[in-house]
Known about the structure:
The complex is a heterodimer of chains A (about 300) and B (about 280). Chain A is built from 14 helices and 5 strands. Chain A is an alpha/beta fold. Chain A has 2 domains: about 1-65, no CATH class; about 90-165 and about 215-300, SGNH hydrolase (Rossmann fold), CATH 3.40.50.1110. In chain A, helix 13 (about 265-280) links the parallel strand 4 and strand 5 (about 285-290). Helices cover about 45% and strands about 15% of the residues of chain B. Chain B has 13 helices and 10 strands. In chain B, strands 3-4-5-6-7-8-9-10 form an 8-stranded parallel β-barrel, surrounded by 4 helices. In chain B, strands 1-2 form a two-stranded antiparallel ribbon. The longest helix of chain B has 13 residues, at about 25-35.
Amino acid sequence: MMHKIKSLFKKIIKKLAGIPNNKKSRLLMLIISAFIAAVSVLVGLLTNVIAAIAAAVLLIILSAFPAYVNTKTVYWLSKERPTSYFQDLRFRNMEGIVVGSTKAWKYLDMNDLEDRIYNCTTYKRAFAMDFATLKTYYSHVRKGGRVILVVDYEEAEEIGYKILPRDFNYIHPHIFLQLGKKADKEKAALPLIYYPGFTLRYFFYKLKKNMGGYRKGSWKLSKDKNLDINTEKVKKMVDKIDAVVHFCWDRELEPEVLLLNAGADNNCANDIIRAYFAPRFPEVNIQLVDDAAKMNELIRA
Amino acid sequence: MESVILNNGCRMPKVMLGSFQMDDPAVMDDIVATAVKEGVFGFDTSPSYKTEGMLASSVLKQIKEGNAKRSDFFIDTKIDSWQMIAKKGDIRPYVMAALDKTGLEYWDMLLIHWPQPENFAATYLTMEKLYEEGIVKNIGVCNFSVRHFEEIEKAGAHIVPMVAQNEIHPLNTEPELTEYCRKHNIVIQAYSPLCRMIYKMKNNALINILAEKYGKSPAQIILRWHVQQGFVPIVKTSSSKRVIENTDIFSFELSKEDQEAVSKLDEHFKIFLESRCCPGY
Lengths: 301, 281
């Protein structure tokens, strides 16, 4: 019996998958409308007309909200992508470029900096993608210009090397080609379905950012240091930063590394990273940063 | 049309016509026919421009009509980054396929389009073999900086590129590259030689003063500057009238002071940003 139900379910899914996308959307709208109508009628029969109307309005809002979140997320992500160099002949010979962590994306104050610093910070991007971003956009910076790499160790460890479909829009397609990856346009167009947690968090953080919610704030700073930290993993981060530093030097750019103190892991890892670089590369500008004000001061310098 | 001599003794026209963003075969036919009539036989194409076939077809038409021989023409093509990545530098199949598709017996010049970081050195070594076999008459590079030349040398390259094609115009004169190429006898081809006549080029006061002084158009002044610098400009137009105008630059000469004044316009302004075209450049 279960086997028959499973088989029937699979047939339905296969049939649905075969429907063209525009017809799928119409079908979905039809199903949702039918559901709202049915529930409203039921509420009306059980209570009164006003309650039925209220139920209908509430259900419409609840149904429309996911579509709104998805559409708005895709739109905001596309707007965060740097301009096309061909259509937009501004942003040449910039003083510097900044890439890095979500905290930089949230708290970087670009007021009066737009003509000086090329902002390539974005939400929840793997370190490897920050490097790929730098490789794609560094030519906007003049010779001898600054490359400001904002490092959040805990976030980098949390995200790992996941490449998201939205990265395809942000970095050069040859990087994907070189990595043997393929873009997934469907996942990029429907982030709420494929990456619900990421999409919802991004939506609300972006809303807060647009309303100025991060303008004067900073991230939480712990006074602890996790002395049991996995030093092998920290060494891997050192190697990754090292690669970025050498990349900059080979291209006559000046790297500046901002290590964000935040949680206990960050605070300990940053000490190790800075200790590693200090004697080996005294000319690498590497700073520990406790709060957003300090981060903005160093970027604005 | 006057020509320059490459470091292997071959001749290359002093002015060439580009085909970037051309998509109408009738326009291409018209441009090539006008060019041939004016004695201009140098053309530039690339797989990424999607004009190899169109250009070859127009060239073969001129040969068939008896207006020119194959040996009169000088045709550049390029190896694109995706080809280098796909074949890890062993780009011979693409070169042979393009020759088969276009019906040209050989390429006059094969260039690396962009120094794709992981594969450009291996690609250059393959191009050396194609050159030695006579499948291409000359080999060169595009968008190289001095460190890329040094890298191919370290990788074992033994043939100095005949040509370096870079974005060069009065707003971006590339003095370091120019010095290196002069030292190594590499001829520089300049693409976007007019900086696409963007606002700040078209309305540049000095260029317009010189245009009035010499009785020529601003484009002609700039192209003459290129020729006197020793560069070979690759100028693209869809207008036959402009083909005639842009190649009529040998009947006058800029004075030394005017030449130097134009060179001083350099502000390292580029349209084609290296990392946007070739990540990791």
